[in-house]
């Protein structure tokens, strides 16, 4: 149950980070939300998802490497 709660809070935090941080950055570099309706929010969520996957992959691979070093050492 604790894991589900943490996952839910993380998802909500990522959504608000996407809305308040990523969307304004994309808007400032020329991505107009007026011309593309809700595409700005959708693409901001996709960009956030991509970087979340990259971060989780990096952290997971570091953990695996540390565990392998513990087994050998």
Please render the helix and strand layout as text.
Elements lengths: L1 H27 L10 H34 L1
Helix pairs in contact: 1-2
Give an account of the 3D structure.
With 73 residues, this protein is mainly α. It has one domain (2-72). 84% of the residues lie in helices and 0% in strands. The chain contains two helices and no strands. It has helices at 2-28, 39-72. Helix 1 (2-28) packs across helix 2. The longest helix has 34 residues, at 39-72. The radius of gyration is 17 Å and the shape is elongated. The mean pLDDT is 86. The chain crosses the membrane at residues 12-31, 43-65. Keywords: Membrane, Transmembrane, Transmembrane helix.
Concise description?
This protein has 73 residues and is mainly α. It is built from two helices and no strands.
Strand content: under 5%
Major β-sheet annotation: none
Distance between the termini: 35 Å
Tally of separate domains: 1
Q: What is the helical fraction, as a range of percent?
A: over 70%
Count of helical stretches: 2
Q: Supply the helix-strand structural class.
A: mainly alpha
Count the beta strands.
Answer: 0
Shape, per Cα inertia axes: elongated
Mean pLDDT: 86
Poorly predicted tracts of residues: none
H-E order:
HH
Alpha-carbon Rg, integer: 17 Å
